[in-house]
Amino acid sequence: MAEPPAQDSDITPAPSTEAIQATLSELTTPLRPSRMVMLAGLITCIGAISIIYAAVYDHLSIIEIITITTAILVLLCLFGSFGWRRLQAIHQRLRDSAYQLSAIEQQLAQAAHETDRLQRLLVDAVNSVDEGFVLFDDTNTLVVCNERYRRAYPTIADLLVPGASFSTILATAAQRLGVAGDHGPQDLRQWVEDRMRRHLSAPQPQECQLTDGRWYRISERPTRTGGIVKVLADITMAKQHEQELASKSKVLEGTFDAMAQGIAVFDTDLTLLTWNDHLAPVMDYPAHLLQPGTALQAFRDFDFQRGVKKLPAPHPVDNMPDPFSPHDDTDTLLSEVELPDGRHVDVHTSPMPRGGLVVMYSDITTRKQTEAALQHSQKMDAIGQLAGGIAHEFNNMLTSIGGFARMALRSPEDSERVVMCLEEVTKAADRAASLTSQLLNFSRRSLSEEQRPIRLKDMLRDLTNFLRPLLGVRVDVDVQISDPDLIVSGDPVKLHQAIVNLCINARDAMPEGGEIQLSLSRLTHEHSEASRRLFERHPLLSANRAYAALRVRDTGTGIDPALLPRIFEPFFTTKEQGKGTGLGLPMVYSVAEHMGGIIDVESEVCVGSVFTILLPLCEPEKTEPSKRVSRQSDFNGEDFTILLAEDEDSVRRLITMTLEDAGCTVLTAENGHEAEKIFEQDQDAIDILISDVVMPGLDGPALTRRLLDLNPDLKVILMSGYSATDDWKALTEGCGRTFLRKPVVPDQLLAAVQTLVNRVE
């Protein structure tokens, strides 16, 4: 008989693979008849034993024994037919279950293998990320932790293993690091509880600095299963960059506010982004404008309403943006404005690479006053040098005038000789008038920034005669003009002075004498290889523009190459002590820059120097054909009465004779007060006032104003040996008024009178 089965233990060990295979093999073996016979015999034996036992101990009768035996035999017969089939069915079901168990076992093995593979992949992935990573399950037990996280906490790295409790890790860390204070276990428990609450609440990412100085960003997020994922990112480098940027930002902000210029930054929508502290005092902008988001147009409107004047562009460059008018250009602009209080401000507008504008406002009032004073000083210095040459030239002219006049007086009967002498006197007088005119133009102050077309050929022609007495007899002047139609825009007085300064420097570089060559030509980028190099040296020049090239070449000592970079610095001079101010070349540089051009210098020691001024060309103004000036004999003034106010007797007599010869009635006065009295007595008969400007007592402009108050239709001619001022021009700009510069020749005077009387008002 088989041994009785062992009693079940509390925990049944899982069967081994071999046991499962053996059982399956046994179950899948078909039942054979021999086995059935053995089973029937076994049952018969058991029944016989039971009968014998019952007969012995229970005193069964023979009939009872025979009955039991017969029942057993009947059961055996029934078992032989029905039992067999039943056992076959049970056996089949067991075999099917065994096959199913085998399939499940294979699936479990595959799942275990895949789980192991995925677990290894997860561990590799977690360890390969740049951030520290740790995962706790819903019981706050550590599931996985990578090496980067452990390296961030070296003090507790040994605790960061799967299965460790978060509370245990916290408590141990607090003890090792001493973060809970010195107040005993109660403080430790409180600290751990606080940290646990923070841990479970999954707060927003936070930044912290560890004891080793490194910075980390800590992010905690809950999982769907109730756990916590914690990611630790090392942001030490980012923090260092942030601190560096903050430091640089403070430096830039300090620099921004420390700049003497006012600066405003506008975004792509042309609204104010930021500004510095000097913007308000430089431009007098009110506080309500200096707010983020204020439109650039609001500043323009404010400037227009308070009368800010935009002065003529210092250099006529095409397509440049205007900060005081809408524009879409991307070029840089340097313009100048005049504030209502008289201050001058440079406005420098620059576009930013990604859109928007930076506008810098510089108060240049003091600089302009200094420049004007320096320029005037330069003029006076040049005039001092001119004195000797001018005196020499005037003596020659006076010699001609006096000599020919006396010669005519000696032979009054010889009409041809008298006419020849008077013609020479006239020529000498014309030369003297031309010389004084140029001297006045050169010496007058020019603070009006007058911008007008300048025909360079005419300027050089007039300048040549002016320069010869200035440069001396040992210096030859050669003028070469290759293009006579070149016109630029600028202040003619300043340009005149700039060329004179260059010629004076050239003369000083040739103490033993030499040659100065003045040349004028048209220059473009493609003109020659030399011109291309010149354009490369000066990026401000536009390759698409044509320029007038004014060159002053000398055969002097040249300039040391080491000194060339400094020659345009104010007060820097290469001359001996006391022989130079160091202001001439800076003045030339300033004039060229204000006219939109540049100045270039090439020099070789012991050979000479070449200074080139490049100025942008402009189109000539369209003028009406000039009318022929009437000769003295063509004008008949019998119907006109003229009031003449002139304090110089000889000039008064000359003008009176000229007008009376033309048929005019002339009333003369020696000063303004006398002329006013004459006009009050007979104002209805007087048609024209001719007055000198400079007179004792009541001068010409004051007299003119008084008489115009009495008769606004009075025609006026003002005369002076000085250049016309803005005040004089204002008086003579109206209809029926004009200005004549002395010396006034008879034909010129009569032409002016005829123009006034013929003008239709």
From TrEMBL:
Residue(s) carrying 4-aspartylphosphate: 692
Keyword Ligase: no
Histidine kinase domain mapped to chain residues: 389-619
EC assignment: 2.7.13.3
Alphabetically ordered keywords of this record: ATP-binding, Kinase, Membrane, Nucleotide-binding, Phosphoprotein, Transferase, Transmembrane, Transmembrane helix, Two-component regulatory system
CDD domains assigned: HisKA
Residue stretches spanning the membrane: 36-56, 62-84
Catalysed reactions, as listed in the record: ATP + protein L-histidine = ADP + protein N-phospho-L-histidine
SMART domains per UniProt: HATPase_c (SM00387), HisKA (SM00388), REC (SM00448)
InterPro entries assigned to the protein according to its UniProt record, in alphabetical order: CheY-like_superfamily, HATPase_C_sf, HATPase_dom, His_kinase_dom, HisK_dim/P_dom, HisK_dim/P_sf, PAS-like_dom_sf, Sig_transdc_His_kin-like_C
Domain Response regulatory stretches: 641-757
Entry-linked SUPFAM superfamilies: ATPase domain of HSP90 chaperone/DNA topoisomerase II/histidine kinase, CheY-like, Homodimeric domain of signal transducing histidine kinase, PYP-like sensor domain (PAS domain)
Gene3D superfamilies: 1.10.287.130, 3.40.50.2300, Histidine kinase-like ATPase, C-terminal domain, PAS domain
One Pfam match: Response_reg
Top-level taxon of the source organism: Bacteria
A GO MF term: ATP binding
Keyword Nucleotide-binding: yes
Name under which the protein is recorded: histidine kinase
Lineage: Bacteria, Pseudomonadati, Pseudomonadota, Alphaproteobacteria, Rhodospirillales
